[in-house]
Amino acid sequence: MPEVVIRTSGLTKVYKETKVPVNALGGVDLEIMEGEFTAVVGPSGSGKSTLLHILGGLDYPTAGHVEVGGHHLNELNDRQLIDFRLEHIGFVFQAYNLIPVLTARENVEFIMLLQKIPAREREARAAQLLQEVGLGDRMDNRPTELSGGQQQRVAVARALASRPQFILADEPTANLDSKSAGNLLQMMAEMNRREKVTFIFSTHDQRVIEKARRVITLEDGKIVSDVTKA
Amino acid sequence: MYLLLAWRNIWRNRRRTLITLASVAFAVFFSSLMQSMQTAAWGNLIDNAVRFYTGYIQIHHQGYWDDRTLDNSFVNQASLQSKVAQHPGVVAVVPRLESFALASGTDRTKGTLVIGIDPEKEDNLTNLRNKMRAGTYLQAGQKKVLVAEGLADFLRLAPKDTLVLIGQGYHGANAAGKYEVAGIVKFPSTQLNDQVVYLPLPEAQWLYDTGDRLTSLSLLVDDPGKVEDVTATLQQELNATQFEVMNWQELMPELVQGFEIDRIGAQVILIILYAVISFGIFGTFLMMTTERRYEMGVMLAIGMSRLKLQSVMFLEILMLALGGTLLGILVSLPVILYMHNHPIPVSGNLAELYQNYGMEPVLPFSRKSDIFLRQAYTVAIITAVLGIYPLWFIQRLIPVTALRS
């Protein structure tokens, strides 16, 4: 029986960087089970990315409580949050965000280096992951030598390399053509099944929404619908 | 991989890295060249000034330097001279007896500085023989004098003429003597040239009735850099209530002041140079951090600690600084070695002035290793201080803000 691995209550985020405070999240109560493949949808400015950032320990909520994988993120300091992200979270960003001076293999290895995994193990896992995402023949290419779709596949391999409990993907298909997006989603769904990693997407993309088993809709920082497909 | 990452990062913008390396190298090259010339020129000047008269160190009776009279002379003990001569670092000991007298030629009289010398030892220190313009050099045991050219002209004296000295001897005794002029010496310093008379030491002691007394022992040392140590140890070894030991800095404070003024002037130029270079380096650091703000945000987001990110940035800074410094040393080393072996010749009046002081008419260059090391330290310190900015930038970077940028 899968257990609840993410729990938020009264999650609120107010940005006070402008003259008029912006309420990005207005009291979000949410529970996500282990191994879910969830899409958070909603119009621009609805709070999708903010929710993902808070769940990923990149940002603190203004109010409310957030517990991810048994960690109460409100209580962690900057250094503890970095360690939390390294050990538990894999990020996939819209703009791929690979390190441009490293090759595909080195980008995947890098996160394992941060985890102090021995070199031989790092090399083997990086090669295996890149094979799995279909880039076995492009391992020694730098990001600028890869297409957008290929870069995003490297980003997924990097996100999985640290064996995270959660993968948070912020608009992962936004910059991809239809075929690349389809392949990427297929690959992530496969890994979700196989590795039991919990995936949470923020997206506008209908293809992602169709693939997701649960769809949470946000509007003005509040959950307006939460549908789990049969 | 961190080293690899840092290395690849600095070559992301090849042109900017090359400009930064070149500006650091230029600063090291220019400042090394300047320091090399200044060190060698002053080293030469000090060596010549010291060999011109004072020696590197002098030993007097306590209180002599403030009240230079024969009453403050000391007994010339053989044990003292041999003790000083055997002191580590001392290569020559030159005894002198100095006082004043009225000197008369055929029909003119003038106040003079009379110096009793050991002719051979004096020549060893001051190259007095090379300053001869007429006649012959003094020999020990002679009852003859050497007269400075300006004084000889005033008294209308030539070699083999007679000079009469009248003055006050030790403890108020009368001092009077008649001497044949052995030769004429010329000094570039007008002050010395118009008033010096040299006598063999025993003759001067007889003239002033001092017995076997001296006013000073001038010392030459093997390494000018050890003068302060030798002075201090000699002062410890000799009876401090009886003797004062002074080094050339104390004997010629005006030379020290001149050196200090020149050094400060050079420092100001170097500070301006380094300030200009610092702005260039800082510009690079600013660009390195600003253009990678987003990427650094990603690195923090995926779990790279700030300390590791700062370490990578520090490695980049270190590579730029060390690379530029090494390049600067590699460029300046052959140039300075060449200049050391082929100093710049000086011509015209300046050349004549140099020769009058017994100096070779050239602008010399020093090849001392500390010249290069000093530049390396300076660049390292500047870079370390400027490098605080990127490290501070990373410390304050908020990943989520960087990802939004």
Automatic annotation (TrEMBL), chain A:
This is ABC transporter ATP-binding protein. Keywords: ATP-binding, Nucleotide-binding, Transport. It comes from Pontibacter anaerobius. GO terms for molecular function: ATP binding. InterPro entries: AAA+_ATPase, ABC_transporter-like_ATP-bd, ABC_transporter-like_CS, ABC_transpr_LolD-like, MacB-like_ATP-bd, P-loop_NTPase. Residues 6-230 form the ABC transporter domain. The keyword Nucleotide-binding applies. Pfam families: ABC_tran.
TrEMBL record, chain B:
The keyword Hydrolase does not apply. Keywords: Cell membrane, Membrane, Transmembrane, Transmembrane helix. It is a multi-pass membrane protein. The chain crosses the membrane at residues 268-290, 311-339, 371-394. Residues 20-236 form the MacB-like periplasmic core domain. Its main location: membrane. It is found in: Cell membrane. It holds the Pfam family MacB_PCD. It comes from the Bacteria. Residues 268-339 form the ABC3 transporter permease C-terminal domain. Belongs to the ABC-4 integral membrane protein family. LolC/E subfamily. This is FtsX-like permease family protein. The lineage of its organism: Bacteria, Pseudomonadati, Bacteroidota, Cytophagia, Cytophagales.
